[in-house]
Amino acid sequence: MGRVWEGGCHCGAVRFRVDASEVTELLDCNCSMCAMKGFLHLIVPGERFTLLSGAEALSTYTFNTKQAKHHFCSTCGITSFYVPRSHPDGFSVNARCLDRGIPAALPVVPFDGQRWEESVDAIAGYDP
User: Fold this and answer.
1) What does the domain layout of the chain look like in residue ranges?
2) 47 φ, ψ to 5°?
Protein backbone atom coordinates (compact mmCIF):
# COMPACT_ATOMS: atom_id res chain seq x y z
CA MET A 1 0.00 0.00 0.00
CA GLY A 2 1.55 3.29 -1.08
CA ARG A 3 1.50 6.67 0.47
CA VAL A 4 -0.08 8.68 -2.30
CA TRP A 5 -2.90 10.71 -0.85
CA GLU A 6 -5.27 13.38 -2.02
CA GLY A 7 -6.70 16.29 -0.14
CA GLY A 8 -7.91 19.83 -0.44
CA CYS A 9 -9.51 22.85 1.12
CA HIS A 10 -12.82 23.01 2.97
CA CYS A 11 -15.00 24.10 0.03
CA GLY A 12 -13.35 21.70 -2.43
CA ALA A 13 -12.14 24.35 -4.88
CA VAL A 14 -8.48 23.42 -4.26
CA ARG A 15 -7.46 19.78 -4.69
CA PHE A 16 -4.00 18.19 -4.60
CA ARG A 17 -2.21 14.84 -4.65
CA VAL A 18 0.92 14.16 -2.63
CA ASP A 19 3.35 11.25 -2.83
CA ALA A 20 4.54 10.84 0.74
CA SER A 21 6.24 7.48 0.22
CA GLU A 22 9.54 8.89 1.52
CA VAL A 23 8.08 10.84 4.46
CA THR A 24 8.88 9.41 7.90
CA GLU A 25 7.27 11.97 10.20
CA LEU A 26 4.95 14.96 10.48
CA LEU A 27 6.19 18.21 11.97
CA ASP A 28 4.14 20.18 14.50
CA CYS A 29 5.51 23.73 14.43
CA ASN A 30 4.81 26.21 17.22
CA CYS A 31 5.44 29.42 15.26
CA SER A 32 2.74 32.08 15.31
CA MET A 33 1.39 31.12 11.87
CA CYS A 34 1.32 27.34 12.28
CA ALA A 35 0.00 27.45 15.84
CA MET A 36 -2.89 29.70 14.84
CA LYS A 37 -3.73 27.58 11.79
CA GLY A 38 -3.22 24.19 13.42
CA PHE A 39 -0.91 23.27 10.52
CA LEU A 40 0.61 19.79 10.69
CA HIS A 41 3.50 19.60 8.18
CA LEU A 42 4.00 16.81 5.69
CA ILE A 43 6.97 18.13 3.69
CA VAL A 44 7.68 16.76 0.21
CA PRO A 45 9.92 17.75 -2.72
CA GLY A 46 8.16 19.69 -5.46
CA GLU A 47 8.04 16.72 -7.84
CA ARG A 48 6.02 14.73 -5.29
CA PHE A 49 3.21 17.31 -5.16
CA THR A 50 0.53 17.83 -7.80
CA LEU A 51 -2.09 20.56 -7.78
CA LEU A 52 -5.12 18.83 -9.29
CA SER A 53 -7.48 21.81 -9.39
CA GLY A 54 -8.05 25.25 -8.00
CA ALA A 55 -5.00 27.25 -9.09
CA GLU A 56 -7.32 30.14 -9.94
CA ALA A 57 -8.83 30.00 -6.42
CA LEU A 58 -5.48 30.38 -4.63
CA SER A 59 -4.28 33.56 -2.99
CA THR A 60 -0.84 33.91 -1.42
CA TYR A 61 0.24 35.50 1.84
CA THR A 62 3.87 36.28 2.71
CA PHE A 63 5.34 37.97 5.76
CA ASN A 64 8.63 38.66 7.52
CA THR A 65 11.33 37.35 5.12
CA LYS A 66 8.74 36.88 2.31
CA GLN A 67 10.35 33.53 1.43
CA ALA A 68 7.51 31.22 2.46
CA LYS A 69 4.51 31.31 0.13
CA HIS A 70 1.39 30.66 2.20
CA HIS A 71 -1.21 29.67 -0.41
CA PHE A 72 -4.83 29.62 0.70
CA CYS A 73 -8.22 29.19 -0.92
CA SER A 74 -9.75 32.59 -1.60
CA THR A 75 -13.23 31.11 -1.08
CA CYS A 76 -12.97 29.23 2.23
CA GLY A 77 -9.63 30.56 3.52
CA ILE A 78 -8.04 27.16 4.18
CA THR A 79 -4.29 26.69 3.70
CA SER A 80 -4.01 23.07 2.64
CA PHE A 81 -0.41 23.47 1.45
CA TYR A 82 2.32 26.09 1.03
CA VAL A 83 5.94 26.54 -0.04
CA PRO A 84 8.00 26.61 3.18
CA ARG A 85 11.04 28.79 3.73
CA SER A 86 12.97 25.72 4.89
CA HIS A 87 12.26 23.86 1.63
CA PRO A 88 11.70 26.44 -1.13
CA ASP A 89 11.72 23.77 -3.85
CA GLY A 90 9.09 21.70 -2.06
CA PHE A 91 5.70 21.85 -0.45
CA SER A 92 4.42 21.49 3.06
CA VAL A 93 1.00 19.86 3.02
CA ASN A 94 -1.29 20.27 6.00
CA ALA A 95 -1.87 16.63 6.97
CA ARG A 96 -5.18 17.74 8.47
CA CYS A 97 -6.36 18.50 4.90
CA LEU A 98 -5.82 14.97 3.61
CA ASP A 99 -9.03 13.17 2.61
CA ARG A 100 -8.23 10.20 4.84
CA GLY A 101 -7.17 12.37 7.77
CA ILE A 102 -3.84 12.38 9.57
CA PRO A 103 -1.79 9.29 8.63
CA ALA A 104 -1.55 7.15 11.77
CA ALA A 105 1.66 5.52 10.52
CA LEU A 106 3.61 8.80 10.74
CA PRO A 107 4.74 10.05 14.16
CA VAL A 108 4.21 13.73 14.97
CA VAL A 109 7.45 15.49 15.96
CA PRO A 110 7.57 18.97 17.54
CA PHE A 111 9.46 21.72 15.72
CA ASP A 112 10.39 24.95 17.54
CA GLY A 113 9.29 27.49 14.96
CA GLN A 114 9.25 30.24 17.58
CA ARG A 115 13.03 29.93 17.43
CA TRP A 116 13.15 29.18 13.68
CA GLU A 117 16.71 30.39 13.04
CA GLU A 118 18.09 28.21 15.84
CA SER A 119 15.91 25.21 14.98
CA VAL A 120 15.87 25.00 11.19
CA ASP A 121 19.13 23.04 11.01
CA ALA A 122 17.24 20.11 12.52
CA ILE A 123 15.17 19.93 9.33
CA ALA A 124 17.45 21.68 6.82
CA GLY A 125 18.86 18.36 5.67
CA TYR A 126 15.42 16.86 5.99
CA ASP A 127 14.77 15.51 2.52
CA PRO A 128 11.54 13.58 2.73
Assistant:
1) 4-124
2) -75, -10
CA within 13 Å, CB half, 42: 30
For residues 23-60, one letter each, b for 16 or more C-beta atoms within 10 angstroms of the residue's C-beta and e for the rest, the string is: bebbbbbebebbeebebbbbbbeeebbeeeebeebbee
What would the pLDDT profile of 31-78 be if each residue is shown by its tens digit?
888 899 999 999 999 999 999 999 999 999 998 888 889 999 999 999
Cβ-Cβ contacts under 8 Å for 73 (sequence gap 6 or more): 9, 10, 11, 13, 14, 54, 57, 58, 59, 79, 80
Does CATH place domain 4-124 in 2.170.150.70?
yes
* pTM of this structure: 0.87
